[in-house]
Design brief:
By secondary structure, this protein is α/β, with parallel strands linked by helices. Helix content is 39%, strand content 23%. It folds into two domains: 163 residues, Rossmann fold; 68 residues. Strands 3-2-1-4-5-7-6 form a seven-stranded mixed sheet, sandwiched between helices. Bound molecules: S-adenosylmethionine. The site of S-adenosylmethionine has 17 residues, from strand 2, strand 4 and helix 4.
């Protein structure tokens, strides 16, 4: 039986190295892990969810698609109840607040042996700021389109000493390094969001937001980032 997954989840799967042992935190339906096993990308998958209903649905789906034996299932708030023998953890479809509380509760993840694949649904600049302040480094971040929405997926490793500026928290170097139409649209979308906030606040606008917008405007003049020149 074939499993088709959304472009958003497919993009997360694209970050997984062959034979990786994967932990899917907040697995819900379990499709990410099932896809990785059915396509012989991951060697094993830990599927965890804080809620019983989604976890049961992941177990049912794993049985339906014939990969139940290669998956282990845990009712777990973040990493709390899961074993630590995995290579890469995926957190997808959650907001920055949830991801930050999950990462804060698992300081043992701060180890170069682990990789994180994060697909954040809201307040992504806040997540990037948190990661950069705590010593997590965004190696790669891709902007992808799923229906009418743009999402980003980032690959993160423990590597302290590379803080992001406020502008980079909105449009990080890891995206700047990968020219794409989606990246350009994301750049415009982020910039327009900042302009709206500033216009709404007038002279009382948060100086951090003003500085972030200034940084983003300056990127257009960087010859290495010619792809950000707006043709309109
Ligand atoms: C919107 S779904 C995303 C499912 C899937 N990862 C995806 O991207 O399609 C979010 C899932 O995360 C689970 N979740 C929320 N907070 C969690 C936490 N602290 N620990 C583990 N799972 C959590 C929810 O129960 C839900 O099943």
């Amino acid at each position: 039986m074939n499993l088709s997954v959304s472009p958003r989840l497919l993009a997360c799967c694209g970050f997984i190295q062959p034979n990786a042992r994967v932990a899917d935190i907040g697995c819900d339906h379990g499709y990410l892990g099932i896809y990785l096993l059915k396509n012989k990308i991951a060697s094993s998958v830990i599927a965890a969810d804080v809620n019983e209903g989604p976890l049961q649905s992941a177990i049912r789906n794993a049985e339906k698609f014939g990969v139940r034996e290669q998956m282990t299932f845990y009712l777990s708030d973040g990493f709390r109840n899961i074993p630590r023998d995995f290579d890469v953890a995926v957190c997808a479809g959650m907001g920055a607040d949830t991801m930050i509380s999950i990462l804060d509760a698992a300081p043992w993840l701060k180890d170069s042996r682990y990789g994180l694949i994060l697909q954040c649904q809201s307040k992504t600049p806040m997540l990037r700021q948190y990661l950069s302040e705590k010593g997590w480094y965004i190696y790669k971040e891709l902007v992808i389109r799923d229906g009418k929405f743009l999402y980003t997926v980032m690959e993160v490793h423990w590597k302290p000493g590379f803080p992001l500026t406020c502008g980079e928290c909105y449009f990080p170097p890891a995206i700047q390094e990968n020219p794409s139409q989606e990246g350009l649209e994301y750049y415009r979308w982020v910039k327009n969001g900042l302009i709206k906030i500033i216009n709404g606040r007038g002279p009382t606008a948060d100086p951090v937001i003003v500085k972030a917008l200034q940084e983003l405007e300056e990127l257009k003049h960087d010859p290495d980032l010619a792809w950000l020149k707006e043709e309109r």
